[in-house]
Amino acid sequence: MGRATTGRSADQEQRPRVIDLLRQFTPRFMMRNRTHPQVKSVLSKILLCRTAVLKGHVYECNRCRSRINVYNSCTDRHCPQCGGARRADWMDKSAEVLLPGVPYFQVVFTLPDKLSSLILGNRSELYSLLFQSAWRALDSELRRTGKFHPAALMILHT
Fold this sequence. Notes:
The protein has 158 residues and is mostly helical. It has two domains: 13-83, no CATH class; 98-158, no CATH class. The protein contains six helices and two strands. The chain has helices at 10-14, 18-32, 37-48, 83-95, 116-121, 123-145, and strands at residues 56-60, 67-71. It has a two-stranded antiparallel ribbon with strand order 1-2. β1 and β2 form a beta hairpin. The radius of gyration is 22 Å and the shape is extended.
């Protein structure tokens, strides 16, 4: 059975991509391990990314009339094939609202996954508590150093 063309150069064909490794090892991993349903869902989406299962579009060259299938992406934020482009777009848009000459830092606060079921039942209260606690910690630490006048834009990523 011949190998499908990917539009990659011969040198790139030699190096495995993350998606190639996921396609090779994910089925065995999921059979051998008790995997969280969310992990299964994400991996399933990623494995279908840019395949015929998600459908796609046919592009035709106006000059030579050659055609190429371009399959749709899964749009999952964890996907190595499509997450990077969205992240780059977000960074470009974010850069437009930043003030020149003002240093910015990103700080991420992560809750342990053991709290997931508690949070699902009490989202508003616990997200509010997370934001208040994160701000208090940042504000007190940055003011303690005396080097910064802190301000924050907080965004919830679930």
